[in-house]
Amino acid sequence: TTGLESCIIGGGQWRKVQGYINPFWLVLAASLAAALYAAFCLQESVEQRKPAKLLTLSHYRAVYRLYTAPEHPSSRRKLALYSLAFFLLVTVHFGTKDLFVLYELGSPLCWAAELIGYGSAATYLAYLSSLGGLRLLQLCLGDTWVAEIGLISNISGLVVISLATTTPQMFTGYGILFLSMAATPVIRSKLSKLVSETEQGALFASVACVEGLCSLVATGVFNSLYPASLHFMRGFPFLFGAVILLIPAAVIG
């Protein structure tokens, strides 16, 4: 995350001086270096390969049984509710993140490449601040309260951003989002505690499927909502996301 923030901040200045071509050459060179390092320098961690079928439905059945097993109906109900909360939270995160640059480029903000770089860095800074805040809050609060505080930070920041008309207001919204990512690991932890050790793999697969679905839904909903709401409120998608996050807050609470 630190390296990503440095690239984003420096990238804005670089694009301002030399345009877009040279920064993309750097991205290509870094990607090739990473690929070559992984191919020739990293050692294989799996010493003995186990035989596995190429086409099998066992993995899908394991995920299905995860939510339908009748042994612990209350745990399965909580599992479904927490999965719904995770789906809504990650969908809002993906959807709003895709719109920040468009929102900053338009009127009345009209940011240049330099300010967009700073704004993107502030967005990724929330990952670091949420990690530190999560550790500190867990020293004196339970997981439920930590998740609620993270959701409050997320909702408040999105509301401020939706109403922002000046650069200071926009950065104030970014500042309020400093704990916005704290709720996601807490929900993952709660999900993990609801299943047995033998079901952890199926749970991880289920969470990965939910994340993929979140990306698909977020792109379709928020990217369609933004142009449709320009004529009455440019920041409406962020306000819409804040309202949606009230559902995970109610589920966790």
Structure description:
Helix content is about 75%, strand content about 0%. It is mainly α and about 250 residues long. The chain folds into two domains: about 1-35, no CATH class; about 60-250, Growth Hormone, Chain: A, CATH 1.20.1250.20. Helix 1 (about 1-20) runs antiparallel to helix 5. The longest helix is centred in the middle third of the chain and has 33 residues, at about 75-105. The chain is globular, with a radius of gyration of 21 Å. The two termini are about 30 Å apart. This is Solute carrier family 46 member 1. It is a multi-pass membrane protein. It comes from Bubo bubo. Its main location: membrane.
Please render the helix and strand layout as text.
Elements: H1 2-18, H2 21-40, H3 58-68, H4 73-105, H5 113-137, H6 143-163, H7 167-176, H8 183-193, H9 200-228, H10 236-244, H11 246-252
Helix pairs in contact: 1-5, 3-9, 4-5, 4-8, 4-9, 4-10, 4-11, 6-7, 6-8, 6-10, 6-11
GO molecular function: symporter activity
Transmembrane segments: 24-42, 79-96, 116-137, 144-165, 201-226, 232-252
Protein name: Solute carrier family 46 member 1
N-to-C order of helices and strands: HHHHHHHHHHH
CATH architecture title of the largest domain = Up-down Bundle
Distance between the termini: 30 Å
Helix content: over 70%
CATH-wise, what's the superfamily of the largest domain? MFS general substrate transporter like domains
Overall strand count: 0
Keywords: Cell membrane, Glycoprotein, Membrane, Symport, Transmembrane, Transmembrane helix, Transport
Subcellular location: Basolateral cell membrane
GO molecular function: symporter activity
Protein name: Solute carrier family 46 member 1
